Amino acid sequence: MRRTARGSGAILTVLAAATAVVVTMGLLVSTAAPAQAAATRIMALGDSITGSPGCWRALLWNRLVNAGHTGIDFVGTLPPQGCGVAHDGDNEGHGGALVTNVADQNQLPGWLATARPDIVLMHFGTNDAWSNRPTATILAAYGKLVDQMRASNPDTKVLVAQIIPMNPSTCGECAQRVSALNAAIPGWVAGKTTARSPVVVVDQWTGFSTASDTYDGVHPNAAGDQKISDRWFPALAALLGAGPNPTPTPTPTPGAGCTAAYRTANQWPGGFQAEVTVRNNGPVAVTGWTANWTFTGRQISQSWNATVTQSGAAVSARNAAWNGSLASGATATFGFIASGTGSPSPEVSCTTG
Hints:
Blueprint: H1 2-31, E1 40-46, H2 48-51, H3 56-66, E2 72-75, E3 92-93, H4 99-104, H5 108-115, E4 119-123, H6 126-130, H7 135-152, E5 157-162, H8 174-192, E6 199-203, H9 222-240, E7 258-268, E8 271-280, E9 289-294, E10 299-304, E11 306-311, E12 314-319, E13 331-339, E14 349-352
Parallel strand pairs: 1-2, 1-3, 1-4, 4-5, 5-6
Antiparallel strand pairs: 7-8, 8-13, 9-12, 9-14, 10-13, 11-12
Helix pairs in contact: 3-9, 5-7, 7-8
């Protein structure tokens, strides 16, 4: 009898232990935290305009978060450098750096290995223009950096700036060198972009004034920081997609509420550079726009941020893939270089849809 009692007790003990394990496992399963999506890692890459202190990054970070893009992480091997605004300040803005040197010395792969970006914002080339590096050499450096980004992450998305103008007192040729570089960037991008790893032009040059938007003819002041942030935002937001609680987009009304304003941005003997700003003045969003005007005796040679065609004197500019959707009150700006003399001021019409 005693033997039987001991056996029953042992069986009960084993059952109790097994029950405890099952209960414990059940508790573990029921209290496990749900998996969260990894944050999108964004690297701002460039020179002192990006990093010292690069307060446009603080403005951009807060605008993205306020728009609902909370799953983002600004990354880089350099820490934040002030600005007096709470933000994620990690970056890759190296003061005094030349993009040609960064490429020649293979500095980027180490930064990429640490930061592991999904998206790169590249505003680079100011010091190269100052150092009179040829445009073709700068573009070759851009290409090498993009190749290194793709080697690190084949799905890297790249936003490449047409850099802000500069007019330092010690470099009389710098303004034209920057203009030449910016004019060549869209063509380079067209040959470099892929469906898996898109490269997108962001026009930081048009409408930026070295007199009112910089403190020394080169580096942005508070007004310049705001303009730089404003130009990055729509292109970056488009790559990030809608925020967690997007506002429903009203059904667009084709052909309504679109206006366009023309401005000559720069001119020289035998040629000029101009910009057109398209604005959605209608009450609802539009999904595409086209600007038209007449250019008698002038021929457009290069354009950016729009597909521009010219037949005789008739010019038509259709939105790019990334700037066709405009909310009510929103604007998009494209630019071009043309041959001809004088400062034209054509009347530009605009249609949507």
